[in-house]
Amino acid sequence: MIGFYNYSVILTYIGLASAVFGITQVMDGRQALPFLCLLLSGVCDLFDGKIARSMKNRTEHEKVFGIQIDSLCDLVCFGVFPAVIGYSYGFNYGLGIVSSIMIVLGAVIRLGYFNVMEEERQRTTAEPRKNYQGMPVTTVAIIMPLLFLGRANIPREIFPYIFQGFMILISILFVLRINVKKLSGRGILILFTMGIIIVLGYLKMRHII
After folding, report:
1. Helices (H) and strands (E) in the chain — how many of each?
2. Are 83 and 103 in contact (CB under 8 A)?
3. What DSSP string describes 11-73?
4. How does pLDDT run across 67-88, given as a tens digit for each residue?
5. Which of 23, 109, 115, 155 is 20 to 30 Å from 125 at the Cα level?
């Protein structure tokens, strides 16, 4: 079979599987479970790069494949998947279509630009990346689950507007020319802790999972 099958891409594939499963749960009318799947995809993306870099003697083909497969999976996990969630809230012939198109398009542009710049960067230096251009697409894995958890404090009829408004804002931040510092080990630990807190919050809402 074509492709590369080693432990450096296992988490990437798990994250993709979680996103696809989450999409099926949106179609089945589940409310909280898709956001847990989105969170799991984010956790996988948080650590898959570190695992890949720890792999010794990776060939150039494996490195390039890792960049490409990571971005392709990120497009599904943090572009298409959020678009499906947002579209499920209604306004399907207005705001839902606009927000869904924008977040997928923003993710495509952001990831395509990253691939081009990352391949060029790796040809010129072996130093680890310190900054990103545009907001990383993975941030939706924290923002959207937190937004869903906070919906108890938002009027039911207004929440879909707020959620899809956030989708539009996020899509703009994906492609905005801003420098975002890459997370340090401490930052990753903080995000991981936030993920645990979110999961605990969802367990209290298990009757709607």
Report:
1. 8, 2
2. yes
3. HHHHHHHHHHHHHHHHHTT-SSHHHHHHHHHHHHHHHHHHHHHHSTT--HHHHHHHHHHHHHH
4. 889 999 999 999 999 999 999 8
5. 109
Q: 17-21, 109-113, 131-135 — which is least confidently predicted?
A: 131-135
Residue where the block lists tokens 């958890």: 149
H-only helix segments in 76-207: 81-87, 95-124, 140-149, 159-175, 185-203
Instruction: Give the dihedral of Cα atoms 83, 86, 87, 89; nearest 10 deg.
Output: 170
Are 121 and 129 contacting, i.e. CB atoms less than 8 angstroms apart? yes
Q: Which residue reads 């499963």 in tokens? A: 21
Q: How far apart are CA 159 and CA 155, in angstroms?
A: 6
pLDDT tens column, 142-176: 899 888 888 878 888 888 889 999 999 999 999 99
First to last CA, the chain: 37
